[in-house]
Amino acid sequence: MKEIKTIGILTSGGDAPGMNAAIRAVTRSAIYNGWRVMAIYRGWQGLIDDEIVEFTSSSVSNTIQRGGTILKTARSKEFLTQEGREKAFANIRKHHIDALVVIGGNGSLSGAQELASEHDIPVIGLPGTIDNDLYGTDSTIGYDTALNTIMDCVDKIRDTANSHDRIFFVEVMGRDAGFLAQNSAIAAGAEAAIIPEGQTDVDQLAEFIGRGVRKSKNSSIVIVSESQKDGTGGALYYADRVRKEYPQYDVRVTILGHLQRGGTPTAYDRILASRLGYASIEALKEGQRNVMVGIRNDEIVYVPISRAVKWDKPIARELLDVLAVLSI
Ligand code: F6P
């Protein structure tokens, strides 16, 4: 592999708390090794539009505690086209970038894989998404912070649910993955979670009502993953059903929305991001390419990006049982 002198770094897709800690770690580890760091603004779109400046060590000062991404982010439609990726690669050459570090979720890392399959550029992915839906890593940067944010919100909603004897359907993010819903439900002591992974022939609402929770409790909290791409599901859908099928229940809906994406990263996310960022430079020094750096059983692992984005990351059956048993 060509000797690396300069790397490019970008964040893409949905922002996630801890992305700044990752940018800081990548930047400082690269500079420590004598490499230059080119910061690419607004994700893949910024690479196409040549929004690129050199970072020094002080460019990332005072950022570890900040949510969002100082590099800004975008969801680029143009990068999905071959012409878009050609423009992006032209800018990679223009700035003499020898390798790219990409921080983002499924779509962003799929883009990285596509670029690397068409052009000679080593890419290292860092899992940055609140959804925790990348295969091969126990946690993604931002997931722990989002989980804590949801837990704090549900703790507050619980006061009203209790005081008024209501059922609350609380909608959380996670388009295709129920990690946020399932684990926030456990952490907040909710009565049930309705998750995309459970969308089988079993009706998750009927199952929740059928458990007879209302016999032992006057109030309940059900955490629901946001609606699917086809528009089915979501908290409003389930609340409407309960209003029709069980008019005796007093039902309310809270959609947490983008409240879940911002905020100060937790210590866990800052440390994770710092470790993964440092490891991305070590990976490049070892000659790795087109891998995502993840964490498993507290150890750094390299996962081919093709697997990280395509393979399913199932929710452990045990987590479903824990919630079901503890919510009686
Ligand atoms: O992938 C992260 C995520 O927050 C998903 O949970 C959510 O479905 C989506 O991004 C929302 O994206 P946007 O902010 O572009 O509406």
Could you please describe the fold and organization of this structure?
The protein has 328 residues and is an alpha/beta fold. It contains 12 helices and 11 strands. The strands form 2 sheets. Strands 3-2-1-4-5-10-11 form a 7-stranded mixed β-sheet, sandwiched between helices. The termini are far apart. 46% of the residues are buried. The mean pLDDT is 95. Bound molecules: 6-O-phosphono-beta-D-fructofuranose (F6P). 6-O-phosphono-beta-D-fructofuranose binds next to loops.
Give a brief outline of the structure.
The chain is α/β, with parallel strands linked by helices.
Strand order in space, largest sheet: 3-2-1-4-5-10-11
What is the terminal-to-terminal distance? Answer: 58 Å
Report the mean per-residue pLDDT as an integer. 95
**What is the strand tally?**
11
Classification by helices and strands: alpha/beta
Small molecules (ligands, ions, cofactors) in the structure:
6-O-phosphono-beta-D-fructofuranose
Helix content: 40-55%
What is the chain-wise order of helices and strands?
Answer: EHEHEHEHEHEHEHHEHEHEEHH
Sequence stretches where pLDDT stays below 50 over 5 or more residues: none
- Shape type: elongated
Largest sheet: 7 strands, mixed
Helix run count: 12
Beta-strand percentage range = 15-25%
Radius of gyration: 21 Å
